[in-house]
Every structure is written in C-alpha cells, then in structure tokens.
Write a structure and sequence with these properties.
It contains 13 helices and no strands. The protein is mainly alpha-helical. Helix 4 packs antiparallel against helix 10, helix 5 crosses helix 7 and helix 12 runs antiparallel to helix 13. The longest helix has 36 residues. The chain is flat and about 70 Å long. The chain starts with a helix and ends with a helix. The C terminus is likely disordered.
C-alpha cells in the first residue's frame, strides 16, 4: 500500500471515529439539552408532539413560580454546603484511614481491612432505622451533623484510598521523609495526599454526586423546609404543582438549576482524573 493510500485509509478511519463519537455525544447530551429547553416553556408547549426543541419565552414566569412555592435558593445553598462538607470530610478521613491500612503494619490490620470489605455487602437501607434512632438520641434531627458524620469514614472510600495509596505512594519515599525529620502526619499531608490525587479525585466526584442526589436520608433528617436539600425540595414542589394545574416548566427549571453544580464538579474532577492517570502511565 502506498503512502497516499495509507493516509486516505487513516483519514477515513478518523472520520468514522468522529462520526461515532458525535453520535454518542448527541445521544448523551440530548436529555440535558431537553431539560434546559423545557425550562423555558409552559405546560401547553411542553406536552406538545413533537416536543419543542428551541428555547421558549416562559423562563421568567417559571423562575417566579419556582421561588414562589419553595425556598429554592436556600435549598440550593444547603445542598452545596452539605455536599462540599461531606466531600471534604470523606476525602480527609478516608485518605487518612487508607494511608494507615496501606503503609503501616500493625496487629489486627488484616482483620480490620477484611471487616471493612465485608461491610460493603450490607445494603445501606438496613441501617436506616438504627441510624435514625442514634440521630434522635444525639438530638441531631434538623442539623447538619447527620449529613456528613455517619459517612465521613465510609468503607467504600477507605477501600478506594487503600488501593490507590498502596500502588502510588512508595515506602522508600516515606523512609526518606522520616530521615529528613518529618513526622507521620506531615508525611501524610506532604506525600500521601499529593501522590493519591487520582484516587482523591475519584472519591471526591463519587461523594459529591452521591451527597447531591441523596434523597431518603435527607428527607428523614431535615424536616424543616428551609433546610431541605434540592432533591427533597423538588419532590415537595411536585406535590405542590399537582394542586396548581401543573407547573411543569418551573419543575424543569429547578431540575436544570440542580444539574449545573453536578456538571461543574464532574468537569473539574474528570479533568484532574484524566491528567493524573495520563501522568502515571507516562511515568510507568
């Protein structure tokens, strides 16, 4: 095959690849686009066939109705605060526990790690009643404590960070740091955290999304309307709008606004994940 023929063949493969990728891009982006478009329409145009594909002129009306029936701005701020707080505490404590299990040898280490893995098999719904009783005993109902304390050292996060730290933090580097006079906590902060950034990015993304979408636990713990999170608030709006003739445009607007923080976090963390994995593959 000549050089020209090879270039043509390579170009044809690249064109086919971009066509396939563009198809999947449209396929996965279409639901998000639909939500943002329907947020600007009224119920009369939302349920038309075919559905509207271009923005409408009801954005201001939907915005006013959304903030009229629920304190959406407060719910948004509470959701962001809880998600950030939970993500930060989970990253810190799970990384610290994973660092200890991965890099230190002590009596009972294997039993503790095995026990942590076994707890992953327990369905989380089985813990709701005893966990609720504990929160009542602590008098933590309608406070922020139940939203991050019970999960800040969860078994999934400890497992993820143990695996990443085992493969990414050399023991020789820790020994060199001890010779230089660093204590164990300084080694964790200056060596453990920077080298475990791919794992931290994965854990942070999963934790933030899980906290943001948490519905059942937030509904049980936060009964005051002003303290409720976005999923609970939108479910309440669903009941309200059934008695007002159907504020579907406002509900779509609420969903669209709730998606934006998730998209921002995913884009930021995914870039960090990809860059760290690429750097690790080049070094390897």
């Amino acid at each position: 095959m000549t050089i020209a023929a090879r270039r043509i063949s390579r170009g044809a493969r690249m064109v086919l690849l971009y066509i396939v990728l563009s198809f999947f891009l449209i396929l996965f982006a279409y639901p998000f686009y639909t939500v943002f478009v329907l947020a600007t329409h009224s119920i009369k145009t939302i349920f038309t066939t075919p559905p509207p594909m271009l923005p409408g002129d009801k954005l201001i009306e939907n915005w006013e109705n959304l903030f009229k029936f629920i304190p959406f701005h407060l719910n948004m701020m509470h959701s962001i605060f809880i998600a950030v707080l939970q993500t930060g505490t989970v990253i810190f404590f799970c990384t610290m526990a994973g660092f200890a299990l991965a890099k230190y040898r002590f009596k009972g280490r294997n039993f503790i790690y095995t026990f942590i893995l076994l707890t992953l098999m327990i369905p989380p719904f089985l813990n709701i009643i005893p966990a609720y009783q504990m929160m009542v005993w602590f008098k933590w109902i309608n406070t922020y404590w139940p939203m991050f304390v019970p999960v800040m050292a969860n078994s999934f996060g400890i497992f993820i960070m143990t695996q990443f730290i085992t493969s990414s933090v050399p023991s020789e580097l820790m020994d060199a740091a001890r010779i230089d006079g660093l204590n164990e906590f300084s080694i964790l902060m200056r060596i453990g955290f920077p080298l475990a950034m791919p794992g931290i990015a994965v854990l942070g993304t999963v934790t933030f999304i899980g906290s943001w979408n948490n519905f059942l636990w937030a509904m049980i713990m936060l009964t005051v309307r002003e303290m409720q999170t976005i999923p609970v608030s939108l479910s309440l709006f669903q009941m309200i709008q059934e008695g007002t003739g159907g504020l579907w445009g406002s509900k779509m607007l609420g969903n669209a606004l709730a998606i934006i923080p998730l998209l921002i976090v995913f884009l930021l963390f995914s870039k960090r994940i990809i860059s760290n994995f690429l750097a690790g593959s080049i070094k390897g």
